[in-house]
Design brief:
With 264 residues, the protein is of the alpha/beta class. It has nine helices and seven strands; from the N terminus they run E-H-E-H-E-H-E-H-E-H-E-H-H-H-E-H. Helix 5 links the parallel strand 5 and strand 6. Belongs to the short-chain dehydrogenases/reductases (SDR) family.
Length: 264
């Protein structure tokens, strides 16, 4: 397949310094896009940009909870690369795994600020550019199977991802009038730094636990698989796909594992 699926396009990837975001940055650049990495992990972000060795990649410090920094990141992107075609809202935090009886509402508010409010701010400012310049852009949000199912994560993360999925559908309804597509990706468990840090375990432990409850045998879900899904939604191959939640979970969310286990 051609490695020019995003040729001439400009993208912002939030949370682009590590995990899914890092893989998306790499694959977007490989496919011809100019990319701004938006993150608060400055050392890792600058290192990634330098490692790709291209004028088509830049790092920008951006705390998505701060709307001014969001607006400045969008303005920086448009000034440097003269466009904004792809907005990949990928950044997120896991929040706590406490019971609802012990939920810390200050931490809850912070999870909402990063996972939902940050995406709202980037959609707002990115869409303004797309509408003004008549760009038929693609906006993508990383949700989670926790955005459709309960019990897969902590309460605040689950609530935030349900809200983010609602945001995708709501924004799709408005922005379709301008030819702007809005979609989401819902991954199953991946051993990203976010997941490992939240659970305080290593990559092997996360992958073993995920494999034990997964449905699709023979494959371990990796960050690059989600980046490939983002590439599809960012490219013209999905030109008439909008309002869609692309679930990448190997069938986990639609299969009751009880019967397969009995059959084994």
């Amino acid at each position: 397949m051609s490695k020019e699926r995003l040729q001439g396009k400009v993208a912002i990837v939030t949370g682009g310094a590590t995990g899914i975001g890092e893989e998306a940055v790499r694959i977007f650049v490989e496919n011809g896009a100019s990319v701004v990495i938006a993150d608060i992990k400055d050392e890792l972000g600058h290192s990634l940009a330098s490692s790709l060795g291209s004028e088509k990649v830049s790092y920008r410090h951006c705390d998505v909870r701060n709307e001014n920094e969001v607006a400045e990141t969008v303005a920086f992107t448009v000034e440097k690369y003269r466009s904004l075609d792809i907005m990949f809202n990928n950044v997120g935090i896991a929040g706590s795994y406490t019971t609802i009886l012990d939920l810390d509402l200050t931490e809850y508010d912070n999870t909402m600020a990063v996972n939902i409010r940050g995406a709202v701010a980037f959609i707002k400012h990115a869409a303004r550019v797309m509408v003004e310049r008549k760009i038929r852009g693609s906006i993508i949000c990383t949700v989670s199977i926790a955005g459709s199912n309960a019990g897969a994560a902590g309460h605040e993360y689950t609530v935030s991802k349900h809200g983010l999925l609602g945001l995708v559908r709501s924004a799709c309804g408005e922005l379709g009038a301008y030819g702007i597509r809005v979609n989401s990706i819902s991954p199953y468990a991946i051993a990203t730094p976010l997941t490992c840090d939240a659970l305080e375990v290593g990559v092997a432990e996360v992958e073993a636990a995920a494999h034990g409850s997964a449905n699709l045998e023979g494959i371990t879900l990796k960050a690059n698989h989600i980046a490939e899904a983002a590439l599809f939604l960012a490219s013209d191959e999905s030109l008439y796909v909008s309002g869609h939640n692309l679930v990448v979970d190997g069938g986990f969310s639609v299969v009751n594992r009880w019967l397969p286990r009995i059959q084994k």
